[in-house]
Specification:
mainly alpha; 7 helices; 57% helix; 2 domains; Arc Repressor Mutant, subunit A; 160 residues; elongated
């Protein structure tokens, strides 16, 4: 049986490891951007505009996937922009779009509420598992945040 001191030390180590994992796994959002994995009304507007101008042939579904990324790259090449497939401030301006914090992908990084929610989820899913199992649960959640198949926030993945 573990002592309370051992459990507290283990919990602190787990929290520190998760904070490090989150900080390396999720890039900080310097500017508001639309990129693969983004979704919502801003992506619908982007897709409609690209389709209207002949850069995009896919469905206007509000999900920034590979077809949308390819269309953005094509638009960027044709307009002398860096062809990275990400709609940042310069690409948005060239498209005539205005990006705001609530219209773009939410990259949470080290926000306290997300760290707490992630810790609670790991505790709920893997509290009786060894340390490696608990880290694996956290890694699965963070990998899903980065995937275009799942919501692009920690809370979105957990509540799905």
């Amino acid at each position: 049986m573990q002592t309370i001191k051992t459990r507290i030390a283990r919990g602190r180590f787990l929290l520190l490891a998760l904070l490090l994992l989150i900080s390396f796994a999720l890039p900080a959002a310097a500017d508001t951007v639309l990129k693969r994995g983004s979704s919502g009304e801003a992506v619908v507007t982007l897709q409609r505009k690209l389709r209207q101008w002949g850069y995009y042939n896919g469905a206007v579904d509000g999900i920034f996937g590979t077809q949308t990324e390819a269309a953005v790259r094509y638009f960027q090449r044709k307009n002398g922009l860096t062809a990275d497939g990400i709609v940042g401030p310069r690409t948005a301006a060239a498209l005539g779009l205005t990006l705001s914090d609530d219209s773009a992908v939410a990259v949470s990084g080290t926000q306290d509420k997300d760290v707490y929610l992630l810790a609670q989820c790991i505790h709920g899913e893997a509290r009786g598992e060894p340390y490696k199992g608990q880290v694996a649960v956290g890694a699965v959640i963070l990998n899903r945040v980065r995937s275009s198949r799942f919501p692009n926030s920690i809370s979105g993945v957990i509540y799905q």
